[in-house]
Design brief:
Blueprint lengths: L2 H4 L2 H22 L2 H9 L5 E2 H8 L3 H13 L3 E6 L2 E6 L6 H14 L6 H36 L2 H13 L7 E5 L7 H7 L2 E6 L2 H13 L5 E5 L2 H6 L4 E7 L8 H11 E12 L6 H6 L8 H10 L3 E9 L5 E8 L2
Parallel strand pairs: 4-5, 4-7, 5-6, 7-8
Antiparallel strand pairs: 1-3, 2-3, 8-10, 9-10
C-alpha cells in the first residue's frame, strides 16, 4: 500500500505542499553565488564562522546568516570541537528525492573553480593551524608524553598496530611514517622494511626520534624535517605509509589523504590509527589536538575522494572513554 493510499486527500495535499516548500527553500539556499562557493570550500574540510568570514572577506554576521540558510535546508552541518563550532557539508539526506537533489548540487558545485585569491587565503588559514600545532609541540615536548598517555599513548596501542601491520599484505621495501613523534614505532618499522623514512614538521620531535634511532642503531631509518608537500617535491614513493595519532593534529585531513595517495606506490597501503570522534575538549589544550577525533565515515570519504580503496578496520575501546580506529586504505 502506498503512502498516498493510507492518507486522506487533505493530508496528501499537505504532503505535496511540504515537498514544494522544501524545494523552494532548497532553491533559495542554492541560488546565491556566495553560498555555492561556501559549499565548495566545505567539500572536505571544516571551518569556523570566523575562519569562513576571513576566507570570503565578509562580516561575521553576514557569514552566520548564509550558514544558517544552508543549515536550514540540510546542506551544512555543525560539529563542536571544544568551545568552537565548525561547519562542514552535511551528509546526504535519507529521503531518496532529497538525496538526489543534494548529490547533484554537490557534484555541480565541485566543478566551480575557486579564485586564486581565495585559494591563497585557504592556504594561509591552514598554515596558521599548522603553525599553532607545531608551536604546541615545540613548547610542550617535555610533558607531551604524559598528556598523551591520558588519552591514548603509544604503549596502549603500539602492539596492536604492529599486529595490524603484520596482517596487511604489502611489499616491505619502503615505509613512510608521517609524524613519528618520539619515535616509538620506528624500531618495529625498521625490522620489517628495507628502508624507513620518518617525516615530521617538529624539530623537537625529530630530535627525539633521532635519539631512538641512535640508541637502537636503526641504520635504515632516514629522518626528514618537513611535511607531505616536501615529500611530494622530493618525489618520495613508499609501499606503506603509517599515521599514528597524527591526523587529528593536521589542519586539512582530506588534503593529507590526497598527498599520501600520490606518495603510495601501486598496490601500496595507507595505515591510519586515530581517535574516533569524542567530546572531551580538554584534549585540545592538553595535547594540542585540532580535531576531537573523527567519525569512521570521515576517513572513508577522504580516502575515497583521494582514489584509495578501503580495507580492514579495527576499533579499540579505551578505559578512559576514548575509542581508537585502525584503518587500511589501498592504492590499487
Amino acid at each position: 500500500m502506498t503512502i498516498a493510499a493510507q492518507t486522506t486527500e487533505g493530508h496528501c495535499a499537505d504532503l505535496g505542499a511540504l515537498r514544494t516548500d522544501t524545494l523552494a527553500a532548497f532553491c533559495k539556499a542554492a541560488g546565491e553565488p556566495l553560498r555555492l562557493e561556501i559549499l565548495r570550500v566545505l567539500r572536505h574540510n571544516a571551518y569556523g564562522v570566523l575562519e569562513l568570514s576571513q576566507l570570503f572577506e565578509v562580516k561575521q554576521s553576514g557569514m552566520s546568516h548564509h550558514l544558517k540558510v544552508l543549515a536550514n535546508v540540510g546542506l551544512v552541518a555543525t560539529r563542536r570541537e571544544g568551545n568552537s563550532i565548525f561547519y562542514r557539508r552535511a551528509p546526504l539526506p535519507v529521503e531518496p528525492a532529497l538525496q538526489g537533489l543534494h548529490r547533484h548540487l554537490f557534484a555541480t558545485v565541485d566543478l566551480i573553480e575557486l579564485s586564486s585569491a581565495l585559494q591563497q587565503r585557504i592556504r594561509l588559514t591552514n598554515q596558521e593551524r599548522t603553525k599553532a600545532s607545531r608551536e604546541f609541540f615545540e613548547q610542550n615536548a617535555d610533558r607531551f608524553h604524559a598528556n598523551q598517555d591520558l588519552i591514548a599513548g603509544y604503549t596502549q596501542y603500539g602492539e596492536i598496530v604492529t599486529e595490524f601491520l603484520d596482517a596487511t599484505p604489502v611489499r616491505k621495501d619502503v615505509v613512510l611514517e608521517v609524524g613519528p613523534g618520539e619515535g616509538g614505532f620506528l624500531p618495529n618499522l625498521s625490522r620489517r622494511f628495507t628502508q624507513v623514512i620518518a617525516l615530521d614538521t617538529s624539530d623537537e620531535m625529530l630530535s627525539r626520534s633521532h635519539k631512538i634511532t641512535a640508541e637502537q642503531h636503526l641504520t635504515n631509518v632516514q629522518l626528514i624535517h618537513g611535511d607531505t608537500s616536501l615529500a611530494l617535491e622530493q618525489q618520495l614513493k613508499a609501499n606503506c605509509i603509517t599515521l599514528n595519532m597524527v591526523l587529528h593534529h593536521t589542519p586539512d585531513p582530506a588534503h593529507i589523504f590526497e598527498d599520501l595517495a600520490q606518495l603510495l606506490t601501486s598496490g601500496g597501503v595507507l595505515l591510519v590509527t586515530d581517535l574516533c570522534h569524542h567530546d572531551q575538549s580538554w584534549a585540545r589544550e592538553a595535547c594540542g589536538d585540532l580535531w576531537l577525533g573523527f567519525e569512521p565515515d570521515d576517513l572513508s570519504n577522504w580516502a575515497s575522494a583521494a582514489g584509495l580503496e578501503e580495507g580492514e578496520s579495527l576499533y579499540l575501546a579505551q578505559r578512559n572513554g576514548f575509542q581508537i580506529q585502525l584503518r587500511q586504505f589501498f592504492n590499487h
